[in-house]
Each structure stands twice: as C-alpha cells, then as structure tokens.
Amino acid sequence: MDKNAIKSLVDEALNKVYSGNMRENKGSIENHSTKNSLQYFKDLAGGNTSALNERESIINELKNIDTQKIIKDIDE
Amino acid sequence: MSNINSAMLQNETSDIITEIINELYIIAKFHNINIPQDYIKESIEEIVVFYEKYLICFESRFCNIDFYKIACWFCVIMATKMYNFYKSKNLENKNWIALIIIYIKYLFIRLRKDGYILKEKNYDIKIMKMVVLEIKGKNDFGIGKNGLYMLFKIATLIDKS
C-alpha cells in the first residue's frame, strides 16, 4: 500500500466526518501537536531530505528490536 | 470563530495524518508485519470519527493534528483488529503483540526527538504489557487507546520544577 492510497483513505474519512459539519471549533483546551513532531510530518509531506533521513534513522533504530524476546517477557 | 469543517478540511490536516499513518505502516513492514488494506481503511475511519467525538467530549479547540493521538490510537485499534481476527480463527499468531512493541518503541523515539527521554528503561515494557492486557480483556491491569495517548501527551507537557 503506498502513500497515495493512504492519502485517499484519509481524505475520504475526513470528508465523511467533517464535510457539512458546521459546529463551532471551540473549547477550553487547545488540541495540537508538539512543534517538533508537527514540523517533522510537514517536512515529510514536502519531501524534505532531512526529514526523510530522520525517518530512515528511526527505521534503522527500530530494526534492532528483538520483538520475539520481548513477547516472551510480556505475554504470559 | 471558525467552524470545525473549515479547520479540519485543509490539505495540511490530511497530509499530516497521511504521513503519520504511512510511517506507522512502513515501520510495521520492516518487521515483516504486512497490515491488510481493509484494516488500514477501517482504522483511519475509526480514528477520524473518534477524533471528532474526542474534541467534543473534552471541549477541545482543534489547532492542528496531534501526532500522539493518531499514533497511539492507531497502535491500539490496529493491534485489537489483529488480535480479534487471530482469536476468532483460533490462530496462534503474536504479530499483534510485535506491532505493539515496535509502535511503543517508536513513540518513545519520537518523544525523545521532542526532547523528552525515558529515564527508567523498563517502563516501556510495562506499558507494552498494559496495552496487551487491555486488548486481552484484563482491563484492571490494562491501558487503552486514550490512556496510551495521555501518557505520551502528558510527558510533553510537564516541565521540571
């Protein structure tokens, strides 16, 4: 499944829920992301090289996780 | 004051959700977990519907998409779908636990990128176990999609005294 297919599903879901939804966007708590994460995902959407490199380093870090060993520890 | 549809139906909102889900999909794939397309579709819809209900329930004004909400909810919703499938078919498959493990490790990496480091290393394992117990129905010891989200969210909101 590629990113374009995911994007279509996201657009479809957002349209289903929010198209014609005229309630006021109000509330006492502000709903937002951390600045760093927000910028990272914006950069990924824009194809920014530094963000893509960051993704690669995250994937590499996660590759070393021994899931089978942890499963033994947590699944009694 | 703007309406929720004009706040939500922006390219940026859609792009950010897409990038988060795409990253979660890619990470799973690198661990040989191929998430089925229908699960992705169902999960995205569940997340967007729940996002709206959450904003109303907790009287929250939407400013921009909260990464930790999408990632934590996706983790629990997807693992639950996989668990329910294996259980209904009497299949011994622990992929759903592997998914929880890599997603919680991933969430701690992103938390670190946001400037917050987990000091007690074994607590990530404890959180994974709590999510597994919740999905298995042992709710007294478990933590669900909102608890998981709030745990990461609150870590980003606390300053050292």
Give an overview in words.
The complex is a heterodimer of chains A (76) and B (161). Chain A is mostly helical. Chain A has helices at residues 3-18, 35-45, 49-63, 67-74, and one strand at residues 29-31. The longest helix of chain A has 16 residues, at 3-18. Chain B is mainly alpha-helical. In chain B, 69% of the residues lie in helices and 2% in strands. Chain B has 7 helices and 1 strand, in the order H-H-H-E-H-H-H-H. At the A-B interface, helix 1, strand 1, helix 2, helix 3 and helix 4 of A face helix 1, helix 2, helix 3, strand 1 and helix 5 of B. Strand 1 of chain A pairs parallel with strand 1 of chain B.
What is this entry, summarized?
The complex is a heterodimer of chains A (76) and B (161). Chain A is mostly helical and 76 residues long.
Please specify the SSE layout and strand pairing.
The complex is a heterodimer of chains A (76) and B (161).
Chain A: H1 3-18, E1 29-31, H2 35-45, H3 49-63, H4 67-74
Helix pairs in contact in A: 2-3
Chain B: H1 4-8, H2 11-30, H3 37-57, E1 60-62, H4 67-88, H5 95-113, H6 123-135, H7 145-155
Helix pairs in contact in B: 2-4, 3-4, 4-5, 4-7, 5-6
